[in-house]
Design goal:
This protein is α/β, with parallel strands linked by helices. It contains 17 helices and 15 strands. The protein has helices spanning 4-7, 9-24, 37-43, 65-82, 94-105, 131-135, 152-162, 180-190, 202-206, 243-254, 260-273, 276-295, 299-302, 329-339, 366-371, 375-391, 397-410, and strands spanning 26-27, 54-55, 58-59, 86-88, 111-115, 137-141, 166-170, 193-197, 219-223, 234-238, 307-308, 317-321, 341-342, 344-345, 360-364. The protein has a seven-stranded mixed beta sheet, with helices on both faces. A four-stranded antiparallel beta sheet has the order 11-12-15-14. The chain has a two-stranded parallel ribbon with strand order 1-13. The chain is globular and about 60 Å long. The two termini are 15 Å apart. The chain binds pyridoxal-5'-phosphate. The record marks 225 as: Plays an important role in substrate specificity.
Length: 420
């Protein structure tokens, strides 16, 4: 009955070290967030001990009466949140959710059409060495070379030429809304099913601040840990006609026993996502991203060769274009890391630099909004980033780091939480 500090001091030290890292830096990776204490508690609970293959009321194991309640709550809450006819809350991750979606909708060798990986698409939307690229034939649409926007006329042209069985709307790095109604009409025209992967923007949809793909798509998949700010995991929403296929594609098609501690944590996250406070937080997410985009498109920054793809953002992230900057993506990521800001380098469409280096940064605001940041703090963060990207190698790292320390000190993360 000993705790982790006694059983495994090395891992206890990692937990302590990671809490300190999260507290002392500004987390701006667009796909990350800070889960509420209630989610941490559900996920670190005795539910991890339970096997529950099957679905509520139809399990292959005894003793599922408590976990059935948790999973039923998660299903009811997420259906209500997005207005969906059916929900499966068992996927262990976004990638396994996506594997199950394709497994349910099409057969090996059928064709998928998604956003080019190098233009902001995801690995599971048809990357060559991913399951999606190995099991299915892949066609892709890209963004316009000038505007960097998805042009729906081009998507239609590609769909008519390629005749895919599934069209995918969704992205990992794209700063604008997609036109789901146009995707629907193209899918209908070519006889394809429409799958939207809302992994990134699901929290904005829940708050009513982004168009809801559930109104248009046959199937919608998502992660829970990005803008929703729940446990690391996935879920699938669908029209009723796909319910059975989706459920059997998840279990037994893709997975064995669901992670019931994570399913319970999802239920908590979905409850929170229906609250006023959550909607207010998502407002701050969007405002923060706009403040950063505005600062990084100001004249003093563009003079240094730095700009923002599409000239701004409608979502929780900003894509910084460094193609004309002295800094490449790796150098910019390292520089911001030295200042205490964590971001990830990201290829820009038509990137002249190799994928390990890149000419871009992806900067997101969800985690800082969860920490409590509003306009004033995001303005300061935007200015710190602008100063670093302008100065490059000549950056006064110490003085910018001091400004970061002030922000992290003013907005303590998980106040009172002790690890070990
Ligand atoms: N779908 C999209 C659009 C994503 O951006 C991601 C994560 O980066 C995923 C799916 C996969 O999620 P996970 O990392 O949980 O497998």
């Amino acid at each position: 009955n000993q705790g982790i500090a006694q059983v495994d001091p090395e891992i206890a030290a990692v937990l302590d070290g990671e809490l300190a890292r999260q507290r002392d830096t500004l987390e701006m990776i667009a796909s990350e967030n800070f889960v509420p204490r209630a989610v941490l508690e559900a996920q670190g609970s005795v539910l991890t001990n339970k096997y529950a293959e099957g679905y509520p009321g139809k399990r292959y194991y005894g003793g599922c009466e408590q976990v059935d309640i948790a999973e039923t709550l998660a299903i009811q809450r997420v259906k209500a949140l997005y207005g969906a006819e059916h929900a499966n809350v068992q996927p262990h991750s976004g990638a396994t959710a996506n594997a199950a979606v394709l497994h349910a909708l099409i057969n090996k060798g059928d064709k998928i059409l998604g956003l080019e990986l190098a233009h902001g698409g995801h690995l599971t939307h048809g990357m060559k060495i991913n399951f999606s690229g190995r099991l299915y034939e892949v066609a892709a649409y890209g963004v316009d070379p000038e505007t960097h926007l998805v042009d729906m006329d081009k998507v239609r042209e590609t769909a008519l030429a390629e005749r895919p069985d599934v069209i995918i709307g969704g992205w990992s790095a794209y700063p604008r809304h997609l036109d789901f109604a146009a995707f629907r009409s193209i899918a209908d025209e070519v006889g394809a099913k429409l799958w939207v992967d809302m992994a990134h923007f699901a929290g904005l949809v829940a708050a009513g601040l982004h168009p809801n793909p559930v109104e248009h798509a046959d199937v919608v998949s998502s992660t829970v840990h990005k803008t929703i700010g729940g446990p690391r995991s996935g879920f699938i929403l669908s029209r009723e006609e796909y319910a059975k296929k989706i459920d059997s594609a998840v279990f037994p098609g893709q997975q064995g026993g669901p992670l019931m501690h994570v399913v319970a944590a999802k239920a908590v996250a979905f409850k929170i996502a229906a609250s006023e406070e959550f909607a207010e937080r998502q407002h701050r997410v969007l405002r923060g991203a706009k403040i950063i985009a505005d600062r990084l498109t100001a004249a003093d920054v563009t003079e240094a060769g730095v700009s923002v793809l599409t000239g701004g953002t409608d979502v929780h992230l900003v894509l910084v274009d460094l193609r004309h900057s002295d800094l490449d993506g790796q150098q910019a990521e390292d520089l911001l890391h030295a200042v205490g800001i964590t971001v990830n380098r990201n290829a820009v469409p038509f990137d002249p630099r190799p994928p390990r280096v890149t000419s871009g940064l992806r900067i997101g605001t969800p985690a800082l909004a969860a920490r409590g940041f509003g306009d004033e703090e995001f303005t300061e963060v935007a200015d710190i980033i602008a100063e670093a990207l302008k100065a490059g190698a000549a950056t006064d790292v110490e003085s910018l780091k001091a400004r970061v320390d002030k922000l992290t000190g003013d907005f303590p993360l998980y106040p009172g939480l002790q690890q070990y």
